[in-house]
Fold these 2 entries.
Entry 1:
Amino acid sequence: MLLEVNDLRVSYHTDEGVVRAVDGITLSLDRRETLAVVGESGSGKSTLALAVIGLLPKTARVEGSIRFLDRELTTLREEEFRRLRGDRITIVFQEPMTALNPVFTIGRFMRDIYLTHREGSEEEALSLAREWLSKVKVPGPEKVLNSYPHELSGGMRQRVLIASSLMLEPDLVIMDEPTSALDVSVQAQILRLIAELKSQVDASFIFITHNLGVAAAVGDRVAVMYAGKVVETASKREIFSNPLHPYTKGLLKAVPKVSGGEVEPIPGTVPSLVNPPSGCRFHPRCPLADGRCAEEEPALTEVEPGHWVACHRVSGMGSGPGTGGE
Amino acid sequence: MSDLARYVIRRIILAIPTLLGVSVIVFLMIHMLPGDPAQLLAPPEATIQEVEMIRRRLGLDKPLWEQYIIFMGNALKGEFGKSLFTGHTVSELLWPAYLNTLTLSVLAMGFGLVIGVLMGIYAALRPNTVRDQAVTSLSLFGISMPVFWLGLILIEIFSVWLRLLPSGGSGTPKHLILPSLTLGLVGAAYVGRATRASMLEVLSQEYVRTARAYGLPDRLVIYVYALRNALIPVVTVAGLIFGYMMAGAVLTETVFSFPGLGRLIVNAIFARDYPIVQAGILVVATTFVAINTAVDILYAFINPRIRLG
Amino acid sequence: MLMELDPSTRRTLRRALRNRNIRVGGVIVAAFVLMGLLAPFIAPYDPTKGNLRDSLLPPCPKYPFGTDFAGRDILSRVIWGARTSLIVSTVSVFIAVVAGILVGGLSAYVGGWIDEVVTRIVDVMLSFPDILLALFVAAIVGPGLENVIVAVALYNFPQFVRIMRGSALQVKEMEYVEAARAIGESNASIFARYLLPNSLAPIVVHATLRTAASILTAAGLSFLGLGVQPPIPEWGQMMSDARTYLVTAPHVWVFPGIALFITVLGFNLLGDGLNDVLNPKMEV
Amino acid sequence: MNAKTLALAAVVIIVVVAAAVLFMAPKPTPVERKVLRVAMGTDIVTLDPHDVPDNPSIYVISNIYEGLVEYDDKLNIKPVLAEKWEISPDGKVYTFHLRKGVKFQDGTPFNAEAVKANFDRLFNNKELANRNRLVPFIDRVEVVDEYTVKIILKEPVATFLNLLCHPAGMMISPKAIKEGVDLKHHPVGTGPYKLKEWKPNTYIELEPNPNYWGGTPKLAGIKFLVVPEDEARVQMVESGDADVAIRVPAIDVQRLKQNPDLNVNVTRTIRIVYIGANMRSPRLQDKRVRQAISLAIDREAIVEKILHGVGRPAKSVLAEELIGFYDTGKLKYDPEKAKQLIKEAGAEGLQLNLWTPKGRYPGDYEAAQAIAQYLEAIGLKIKLRVWEWGSYVAELLKKPEDASPDRDLFLIGWAPSTGEYIGVFRPLFLSESIPKFNLWFYSNPKVDELIKKAEHAPRDKIVEYTKQIQEILLDDLPAIPIYNPGDVVVYKKGIKSLYYIPTEVILTKYAYFGSGG
């Protein structure tokens, strides 16, 4: 296993109370595997990403364990963690418009990354950067190296960031909603690019998205998160053919379809993480909820090999009650 | 770089109407001062005819617009006429005083920038800790401190108690220490506040997180990636403060009897010495506009986004 | 009282009361205002009458802050000085705010060449460093309480024009304003109902901070001899008078300086705090 | 070590020792000719002695120019460019015998023609500020021979020689006058020093005049430094950055006296600071109000507390040093009597304006505030106004019809730069001097007549008239004398022959550094 997350909990103390952004998550990732993490905003998926790359704010309290390359990341010294970041673990954020330093050229940025982690000359840095810019299909890599971020389009910037993440051939690349800030047409291009790159590099990916459709496009496995917890995890095919958790089903209905069918949003809103609902956190929005759901928290159980779900109403049977499947 | 060149030229051209406006206001306001300079200049036993003669000699009988054109024409040549009372040319009085104030302000600014930026970074790196609160309070004290009172306190400490530094006058580098310290401390307070705020803002920016996410070391992230951005608003504040120092030095100059431009202007106001007041205010305001222009240009160097705008 | 306010106002109020800057600044400002208002009742002596034979006494039980060159009680003069500062700063900032709201708001609302001219004039006024502008005005209209108010108001004025104009321009484009105009609401009513309330937060914050600056500037003018005239007690002028006795009688300048410093600090704290609460995103 | 090395070493050692001995041997120390550095408060206005309006200019000018006669530090008259003189029995003709071998700094010889050229300049040039000091009294100037000149007066003037001590009587090179040299900036006199450089608002530096008739000057030069801040001037002398500080604050006297390296010279002046009373103000018509004001003021307290003992309470409109001074004994502190007078005059609660400049005279602004307190104490209401000097003078010099209706009481000082009584009575109290320095618009035919008589009286009869004048003036009180400020000069021990003339002039031209310093 490249990455093993075990009962990870991340909480913050705020004026309003303790926010439990991630509340007991366990998952693992193999080499060259892609895990898509899906959930609405506020479900804790970005916190999970930040916890793995060690960029949580200092005020965050982390419990549980994250093992990566046989090292325990939660207790790793900051300096050692820093050396991992950008080299072994990289991340591509959502907002390409603000993720690049406005006062430096792309070349300067990529050069700094290279020189931070590798012994080498500036020329070597720039030639590697040039090479990777070509790989992410940036037209005129030389010109881009000398450009400032504001001179590039959003899609172009995201390509630059992807190139920067892959340049040093990392083991794990986290993509935190890398396309959601982009125009729809650009989104598709970037998704295609990512899918293409996946086969070219020797890295594992964690792909974070709120869109199950996007998750389907890139993920080998999918983990669905709700209110700081994983509610269902299974292979891509399994999730789509046999979604068990009512939330997962809701998400599937909310995906815009190419055929143009009705989009049904899930009623209600994401609950507060300070005072989450008792029992199953989804029960206030769940069409199937009963009295037990409000009292007892369901555990994540393996209902089929590799298919885990946390729902009382699924209750260990092959298929959930009232499921029609798709 | 042609973008930059175009920007610089445009910015300089933009300053011209402002300067014209400044010159008109300076010219007009001076004519609203009470007291008739011709009357003031004449010897006590002068007759009305003699006063008129003096008025003519000073050009005070011509229509206003004509006086303005003459005034501007001369000003562009750097000629501001003669002091009404000592007969020295205004330039003779103005430029040494200007140089003094400039020296004082530059020293104070240098001092203020170094201390202020360091203080600001120091505080911003650990927001809401004791050391941040200490810096924040200190800078708030600084901007609330009456500069003349601060001057008096420094005199009390360094001149009266310790007998280390002169309490006033000019001529040696020693005389510059207390006045520039006084001005510089106030400047440092403003710069410190601005740096802290801007640094905090920048440190919360995505690109700083990105830089960290790629494992760039803190030194690089803070002192290169963040600071370069954080300094952009600081430059504006510093420009404003520098302008403020050029003019606000009058209080410091009074406390330390430092022969600078501010004092020259105030004394000239008291003496109703028209040409000096006119030239002095014009020079300070021009400097102020020039500094603002320079700041904008500096901006363009630090911040590539501006060049297009 | 709190119950009658709408929830967002109540939330803001609660946040304000929790803010330490507002609490400390508020206490200082309140003390300053009270000192100014109650000066006749709390000052132990007449601030303008002293006994020359008692001149330059150091602090003692009879005169806790000592006496000045004319034998006047410095404590009483410091207390009365608060009243002078209070009048100068509040009146001048008030004038500047009202004039700034009217000129800035109308300029933005009317637009066109009027706006252009106003903006130009404001730009030119802002090219004078503020103390210089105040000094200049004070020199033209001469010294005296009223004239200091005019001078300080004039240097504050362009800043409020700019703020008001800025926020009015934003609000003007908003849908509800367009809607109001579409249903034929009068200009005055639009001005009063939409433009003004929306610009209020930055103006309140700025007015508080400008009050601090105005107190300093007025004191500076008096320090230069261009301000309030004696024997009216004024802190800056008291310090200016004290320069002769720098070595021999430091109590003469220390106490008014402390009063001035603390007052300005109070307004700055309050302004900072209000800024945190009212305009969380505004850069200062 | 061979012989050659040894010899070389010996030579080196001898040379080094010899050099060391030569260096350390006591050299004969000549009297040091140093530059005297004088810290003064304001820059000078002009270097033209006939046009000078201020004292600092005179400090500098008196090193460059000389007159026929000159005051010493006791206001005695001593010969300078005139060696001796005769006065005709009718007191109208003054015959001066000039010093021979004197040359102006431009090489022009000093002679009778030069004297005449200077008086002609005063006669012909109406813009000169000081022409009034001499011109009204002189009928004509005659050259008798190369070194004899006659000045014929219109009427006898007992103090004519005193008038000549004024800078208006100083001799400028006739060549410079004729060529229209800019005398304001390029002085040409006969004095021991000449101008080296005038850097406005910073310093004026003088260098020795090698051709001075009195021998080579004893200083390497004199540098007048402009240091406006009182404290700074004091500090400069204490720290050795200056040798002399002029107009030192009285409050520092006690402290400075304890410094063993300094001389503190508390001097007397002939200046009187008055509270002027506008005789045309409807509020001051009643003489009893003016008398009450005078009685309400504790002059002793003002001198003690505000002047810190540097000065004296005024006893009359004239300072005690002046010829013609007479103490009427009327200037007393009697607040009870003052209150009574106010009551009699029905002036209780009368609102009066009191104007003052600030920093023009020692203690002016402070005294005005103290006086306001005293006047309020006898039941008057005082509104104080502090003026800047420029507009103050302009306002006070206005014609009565143009004068501000607010002009009631105003603080003003007067020191006759001629050093005698005419310089007080004529400009301040003569009816003709309205609207000039008769700032109180005082017009009394009796006083006019007495002043003219006093001017032309023989020297031994002067006091007869001046006594009557002072009796009247101290009863009418158009100008209420308050105090006679002193002046403080601080200089390094070892400086000799630095004189202070009570006309508020520091005389540096004789000064030198003695062995002690």
Entry 2:
Amino acid sequence: MQQLLNGIFIGSIYALFAIGFTLVFGILDRLNLAHPAVFAASAFVGIELVERGGLSLWAALPLVFVVGAVLGLLIERLAFRPLKGRADAHFAGLISSIALAGMLIALLQWRYGPDTRRFPPGSFPDTRFEVFGAQVTLVQVVILAVSLALMVALTYMVTRTRLGRGMRAVAENPTAARVLGVNVDRVTAVTFAISSSLGAVAGVLFAINVNTAQLGMGAAIELKGLAVIIVGGMGSLPGALIGGLLLGLAEVFAVQYIGSSWIDVIAFGLLFVILLLRPQGLLGARKVREV
Amino acid sequence: MSDPILTVDGLRVSYGRVEAVRDVSFRAEPGALVTLVGANGAGKSSVINAVAGLLRPAGGRITFEGQEITRTPAHKLVRRGLVQVPEGRQILATLTIEENLQMGGWHTGGGGSGAIDAMYDRFPVLAERRALPAGALSGGEQQMLAIARALVAGPKVMLMDEPSMGLAPKIVDEVFRVIEEIRASGTTVVLVEQNARRALRAADHGYVMQSGEVVHSGPAADLLADERIVQAYLGVESGT
Amino acid sequence: MLGQYATTLTFIALGAIFAYSFYAVLIAGQLSLGQAGFASLAAFSGAYLAPSGADVGDVPALLIAVAIGMSVGALAAVVLGLPTMHLRGVFLAIATLGFAEAVRVVLLNQEWTGGAQGLGVPRVLTVGMAWLALGLVAYWFWRMGRSRYGRALEAIREDELAARAMGIDVGRHRLAAFVTAGAVAGLYGVLYAYYVRLIAPDDFDFTAAVEGLVTAVVGGSTMFLGPVLGSGFLTAVPEIQRAVGVEAGWIRPFLAGLLLLVVILFLPGGLASLIRRRTRMPADAAAEAAGERAGRSHPPAGDTVVALAGLGKEYGGVHAVRGVDLEIRAGEVVGLIGPNGAGKTTLVNMISGLVPPSSGSATVLGAEIGRTPVHRIAAAGVSRTFQHSKLFNRLSALENVLVGAHLVSRPTFLRRLLWLPSARRDESAALRQAARCLERVGLAELAASRAEALSYGDQRRLEIARALASDPSLLILDEPAAGMNHVEARRLSELITSLAQDGLTILFIEHNVGMVLRTCTRVVVLNFGEVIASGAPAEIASDPAVVEAYLGSADEDPAGGSIAEGTLDDPTSAERADATPDAPPDPVVDVRPGAAGDLAPPDSTPRDAT
Amino acid sequence: MRTKLCTVAAASAAALLLASCGSGDSGGGDTSASGGGLTGEGSGESCTIEGEVPIGAVLSLTGAAASYGESQQRGLELAAAELAGNDGVTYDLTIEDDQTDPRQAITLFDEFVNDGASLIIGPTLSNAAVQADPIAQEAGVPVLGISNTAAGVTEIGDYIFRDSLTEQAVIPQTIAAATEEFGLQDVVVMYSNDDAFTESGYEAFAAALEDEGVEISETITFSKSDTDFRALLTQAQESDPDAIVVSALIEAAVPLVTQARELGIDVPIIGGNGFNNPRLMADAGEAAEGVVVGAAWNSTSDNPENQAFLEAYEAEYDARPDQFAAQAYTGLKLVDQAVRANCSAERDSIQQALGEIEDVPTVLGEFSIDENRDADHPAVVQVVENGTFTVLE
């Protein structure tokens, strides 16, 4: 039981990270490798707001959200927009976002030093529950709830709101979107902003959950985030949630039945199998037809 | 004669070093139906895309309602009432019909539900299938959707790029009927067509394009009557 | 002097070799991150299996390790490549990344690799050896660049579909590129091991892979010196920062990131784009006339070239082509006309093998359509142009035509490596063939221009030249005169006539009816996917059904119903309720998953919308 | 930090050739690099050396190991500042960043060797040491490792020294003390298996546990970048061990300890050198209580050197030092000791004097270099009590 819950909670972290990631990757078809840096940056900024600014976590979270959005806008503006229309935009976008991620991490080291940090004790209520004999913390429940809520809210936004329609229109056919009066650049930028602000919230919750924040925390989860996106289906928000949970559970059961050394082989093995058998992912629509 | 609502002067468009449009000029009076005709690759679509703000002209000047719009981006033009029905319809196939229409009202912020209802009245077939993905429509229905979507935006000038493409003649007739209705309601129409004969029959004024240049222009009826022009530039040697 | 910088220079060489393993696939348009895995497997197996330097001498031990490593790398590439070759773009990158990570974890858990503490390896590699190895690798790619094989890879990168239509076996070429990447990565792994003295699985992690990719892209993936420039640049950045006294710490990675960003944003082709690419035109191209033409024997006039029976194609319930029966005989010039959307392009796509038919059967030059891959059909003697030019944009006009000559030229890469005179002869034969084709369409002066820089009409002509280069028996032209003025169109018409005199069979789609009537021996009219008329030009011109379909009805009959009201039957309508909602309008334009990143042709709006 | 200025033009010059940069004389021999002789007169405190003694340090200031590198940098700079107050010998300490990349470490060693450094301190990680130290060994430049704990580093050659006790020297003592204290019978061992430091720590633990007759009921591995250990800890919990023995770096130690307590695991947690860091108490808070840490440096030792060090460090950096800082600080002090012993900063002279260091009072306690050029000084077993390390006795 404990392991089942462990798997679900780890999985919801993966999902939380991946939901933001997949928004840009799946909808705009751009792989933003600066996303992990935003994830790390937000945790450090959040810690500073709570520690130095004396804010409560609940006050800090919206601010972190804004910081994430601003970073997203910067990333779009600096690393992606200048590449628009280039033949190699795909490779170049990867590289420019890596470059930007490196700069961001360097700035973090300048501001906060290389040491690990954490949210001051008590910034989050240390409430625990016992569920069928298993230990659960409030943070974990919050993370699961936030992941679910974000998934639902984002799905609603993408499918039901004007902005969501705009995003889908831009994704499907930028020219048609422009003809209809959509400011494609702005919609793209907003998508980046939302994606990054989600990454930012994920970073804060993650840091609280594991009681540590490190410069490399984004890089550590990056590959798993990619795996989750692919497994769940590119651009599919429910897919990201299900993919995350699936990966979390797979890992937990790998620990139990195969051995802890093989956890990562499970993640990437799963990824590999999905790519070979169902490249569109579990919930992804098959966007591209082979001729 | 009133002032033209849309003027294009000495327009040039290039792709890299390739010049697709060289020095094209035309104008449209308010409420007129003006057509640009010519063979595939003559540069018609490039002209229309430049006017719509999708392409950056390499030179020339475009004005709309007396104001220069040469380098104004598309999304601002739509807000001002210069709306395009693009070539190939460009409906958003994965979005529903309703969502496509709502996208037409993008610039109004909400989605212009009043305008959408008006379109449902006008095109009942769209109302029936409003929740279906637009990709499930037939070619003719998609064209209607594309037109309806543009109308939701409330255009003063409607730029139409090859609306008859790929459609059966009877449906082409209907498309042209809709175009004439639009024009009758006071909207200026700039029509780009390969189906020159059909377009010239509907238009007030025509411009014949060839290799990026306007080679003839004049009242549509005159152009249509000039068999030499039809033969030489419109790719029709033997006809009716 | 050199001694002082030996270490830096060695790392530049090693970095460049690793970058070449990325270059090897980037040149074919593939993005793989599996090279770190290949390098890792190679380094460990090479270092572990090679005999000790004490027994056989250091250098022989290194050479044996290199041989083992390169074989292991290449083998791993085959194992990974076979199942993943159908993936494209980011999907391939992520799949290969998954492989590399799995390799890392497996090696960490092995006893013989020393786990995290790594495997000790003697240092044997010197700066000289490193540069020698780099020299060999660079030589390999240099000689590859202008070989038939190298051009084929570039063609695949620029436009996979067009490459297939030129008779290039894309699958085999991509796998070959992948295996090359594996072997080169293997070489890097072993050399690295024999320089740094200790290898741990983490030396070949995601970061390492990304670094290799960054090096290759920054250097430029379209020119063989790119990896060397990239490695020199990236290795030098920390050195220069040290030298100018940038304080150690955060500011260095910050500046390095900034520099990288600037390079990638402002130098689209990488550092190599600073070097000019030359195109050689054979001096004697035109002078030396035919004589040694590769020569394909065309079927004798009157033989059946194309036989279609009940051929049909539907896309998500929409019938683009239905029940077409058609026979084309050798020596005919067949014009295919019909209104936009009549299914003409779909029909020729089927004939050239790009689109499998949904019903009926077709035989083209003995090849059965639907079962035969595109490149085989091309090999059977079918060559074509596309409605929207599908040129290899970043290649010169001459190189485009050389790719077209793929089928009739002999592989030259391996012989080029050895500078065999026969390779030179074959290359210049291919060059002459290409030059002749350019000459024939009147583009000889523009041989060195990049295809994308040509005018619309010239691009159309270049496509024809490229199609001619394979010396086809059946030439399919899709709207060749679009964008040409009537003088150019007349010249094109003369060209087609003269090609027919040479024994070619020609099928062409054209809207310029005048030109069609002038040029063809037979005209086929298609409407709503069906053949509505077929016959001599004069018959067709006077056929009222054709006039009605093609030119639109003369009188303004009120329609019997309304599509808007749903009371009119629309022939283009979907017949199935569950029609694929997102069927792309033009099935040929977008074939690659993650095809984004392609530069849209100037006029890419699909015309053939059903 | 010394900066070598050279023309900006050189920087922008062709990347392949960095000629004309550097400190001019690239002599590799024993002759001095920075003007003036490196052999002076007098001995010990009275030793006077005219030239500046060039010392190079290769630390990981950025990248994965940056937090250790930064501690080391502080320790070295603190020691250098103190040494600058002494008469007779001045040091020219150049600290360089290897970016946690072995290729950079190799390059930097090469440069220091070429630039005439009298001795090289570092590098931070053992992996890099195995790769880079041979360069100094071949050139006859003494190296003092200040954090390398993996076996075999000093076996590279007779110029390679370290002042960091290996895990093998610390861990048996830890296990012995813990076994006695808690009566251990079976334990679960957890370690990150993708890090050389923690893996060699694991091996030492395994050997020590076997020696003490403690059974390992389960061995669980993780990655050094992991931060969520709940699944692993639940797995550990199932075998109901007497203690959990962990070989991990501090980045993993903090979340691991916190989550263990969260899951209700209240058996002792025993850690190695990686745990000897004030962050353990600062970040894990109450969860750290009762954690047993075997360490090379007793942070609470009241020997005068240590007290002075703690005070100076806190005054300078407003933070508490960790073991990395203490060992780095000690390292430079030992170098001074060795230079003054023969009153010479020639490489061979330093090498010889380092080998003879014996019973020197240091922050780490009475310090000697043994015949294998490894550190020899008392290790300590600590337990966290009331938020501080106290010696387990």
